[in-house]
Amino acid sequence: MASPILFFGLLAFVFLAALASDPNPLQDFCVADTNSQVLLNGLACKDPNTVEASDFSSSGLHIAGNTSNPAGLSVTPIVAAQIPGLNTLGISLFRFDYAPWGINPPHTHPRATEILTVLEGSLEVGFVTSNPPNRLITKVLHKGDVFVFPIGLIHYQRNVGKKSATAISAANSQNPGVIPIASAVFGSKPDIPNGVLAKAFQVDNAIVNYIRSKF
Ligand SMILES: *[C@@H]1O[C@H](CO)[C@@H](O)[C@H](O)[C@H]1NC(C)=O
Fold it and tell me: Where is the signal peptide (predicted)?
């Protein structure tokens, strides 16, 4: 009979494997067939004989995005939806532009760890550990600095420079997903009941309605 240590070791391994991000590919590539109606984990493959270089390529990432919005942020994603060849490869890329004092509001990626580097400007970045102790781990980054946001943890960036800032990040999923905390909680459709949010945030209904009106 296997020892309890072996048993729990195996259990931990199975659990960790289940938590890991995108599974390894079983073939050279599986370029997404954007016309397929088949629903599966990832996207259906198109015939490998019809694959072209353009399936593995995109352009324009040197162009700054439009940051004229309340957050002062532009995100240009390069995920499987932009490059069909990324399907099943477990990786993606993002460009971020921040207006002065612009933010990437607190959010989490359910399927990826993110590694970010600052190309221009200065960013304050941070992530919060699980509960307990919900510790904030934060740092100011300058051009060329790199920071990692571990999978699933709530994180943010803020431009603390006088000029606009630019960053590039990579993530270990073809489709990291994003859960913006404020809009997911206060802007869900349909609403999370007011009573739930009032109790959760320890405020009254009027405050819940006010925050809701922003999303
Ligand atoms: C940037 O976005 C704002 C708000 O949507 C819009 O009014 C403006 O025309 C955009 N600027 C450019 C250069 O596209």
Answer: 1-20
